[in-house]
Design goal:
single chain, mainly beta, 5-stranded antiparallel beta sheet, 3-stranded antiparallel beta sheet, 3 helices, 38% strand, globular
Length: 181
């Protein structure tokens, strides 16, 4: 924090007009700064697994409704149906809300706090990545019996993806199939 300067913390996935919440700070910032309040024409809900609102201070999934919510994913009808669901709180027929997969909670002062992800999705250099999807593609290779992918942030330069694989049908001393090709 620097006197005479103002910092803004903004939150929002691309699926909801990029910016859904914002908060300005005029003083020192806490360890976990709040992501603010919903912007105009947007609604943010914190819900339990049954999509019911949770009380202040209780963690739940962040969901976004309102005019900034996208219509879905191009050529991905299953994912669209999973993430873009009817908005039961809007009071408008046909209104949708986007299930972000992010974990958050309302603070007593009426601002939202971001707590992390509900799944294994990671962000590396601005890209959202599903390690499980990467592992599934690796396992399609005939030389791979099993794969696990994780994000590691133990070296300078920021987080990176690391894959661990167990080769299939590997005899002692033999190179994996992908090295023989």
């Amino acid at each position: 924090w620097s006197p005479g300067r103002r910092m803004f913390n903004a939150y929002g996935p691309t699926e909801a007009a990029v910016g859904a919440c914002m908060m300005a700070f005029d003083g020192p910032i806490s360890h976990r700064p709040p992501i603010g309040r919903p912007l105009a024409n947007l609604r943010v809900y914190v819900v339990d697994p049954n999509r019911q609102p949770v009380p202040i201070g209780v963690p739940g999934e962040l969901c976004i409704g309102g005019l900034g919510v996208a219509r879905g994913y191009l050529n991905r009808p299953e994912l669209t149906a999973e993430r873009f669901v009817p908005d039961p709180f809007a009071g408008t027929p046909g209104a949708r809300m986007y299930r972000t997969g992010d974990l958050g909670r309302w603070r007593p002062d009426g601002t939202l706090e971001f707590l992390g992800r509900l799944d294994d999705q990671v962000k590396i250099r601005g890209y959202r990545i599903e390690p499980g999807e990467v592992a599934a593609v690796l396992q399609e290779h005939p030389g791979v019996r099993q794969a696990a992918v994780v994000a590691r942030d133990d070296l300078p330069g920021g987080p990176r993806l690391v894959a661990y694989v167990a080769a299939s049908d590997l005899r002692e001393g033999e190179a994996p199939a992908w090295e023989r090709e």
